[in-house]
Amino acid sequence: MNNKKILEGVKIVDLTRVYTGPFCSQILADLGASVVKVEDDGPNSNERSWPPFAPGTEESTYFIGLNRGKRSIELNLKQPQAKEIFYKLVKEADIVMENFAPGVAAKLQVGYADCKNIKSDIIYLSVSAFGQYGPLSKLPGYDMLAQAMGGLMSITGFPDMPIRVGSSLGDAIAGLYGAIGVLGAVLYRNNTGEGQHIDVSLVDSIFTCLENNVPAYTIAGRPTKRQGSRHPDGGPYDAYKCKDGFVCVVASNEKLWGNMTKRMGKPELATDPRFDSNMTRMENIEEMTAIINDWMKDYTVDEVVAMLREARVAVAPILDVPQICGGENTKARHMLLEYDHATAGKVLVPGNPIKFGVCEAIAELPPPFKGQHTPEVLGELGYDQGTIDRLLSDGVIGDGFITRAEKK
After folding, report:
1. Mean of the pLDDT values across residues 317-338?
2. Measuring CA to CA, which of 37, 112, 138, 282 is 20 to 30 A from 303?
3. Could you tell me the domains of the chain?
């Protein structure tokens, strides 16, 4: 592998906070982009304020997990001099990112029109719950609301209770779409010389990831009903109970079902009219599920996994986070990264699942403490120390970097 990164030379000014925006910019930082994270100079809020915290520090594990590869600068964007600093960053940047509620960026004079006036070919990404236009665009929104209105909760849970997916999946999906949009816009600008405004909505993003549930309704007229972990269109495709835990099994085609029934010691089930096709198995899903659970109840998770894998049936134990973090596959795939954080010490965070053949998609910089790079970034913009001191005394920039230094 060489040392040249995929997005080497690309500069990003990042106004985002909480999850979806920081997740998006972290992906781009892993690919080699230079990211300056612009944070407000007030008390910690958003992802910096969420517990738990690194032991003995005020550093949020939530923030640490989403902001490697970035430099942090504290600006009070309500002050004209802070806007001047922001515009200087924009003038040298390729991309600006924000996930304020629609209208807030323009009100702060850091919106697309403001940035385009500074740099005509700027690429500007806006991520919001409902999008920059449409009848719902002005509403505040977070991931759970997007899961509710994007359709995900309607198909997740049990017949009598919809359930939020355990992580903020809508934020993650929108962050991925944001990264894809930015990469497409960079290629478009390289070909045409034109920048653009990209609008990504959490609700839209979730809606595109409902699998067959949308065409099943729009084409076949079938609305999906919540069925727990069970797949609505194939089986066995569910979570099943063993003696000491649960496994997930996918054996929804005839070959896999045949392999499974043989291993269960019940090969006749493969030709039983109740279970001899995917359609008949779905018609008799409760009876089939009871038979599978009755077989598994006498075995441990490890035993069931070993037996079904030997039979070439798709099966997996349901692992918790400590098990995944300690897993050999996690280690082999470099999916836990260690960084030396300036105040939190050694930290482990999730790696990048994109494995390029020519370089490693891992940002070198550890997650920053708030305002850590303010003097450094201002110095690169041409501000001397005396000016930086005046900006600090005037409340234009935050004093996080000084506070941290004094604590050492």
Report:
1. 96
2. 282
3. 11-209+328-407 (3.40.50.10540), 237-241+246-317 (3.30.1540.10)
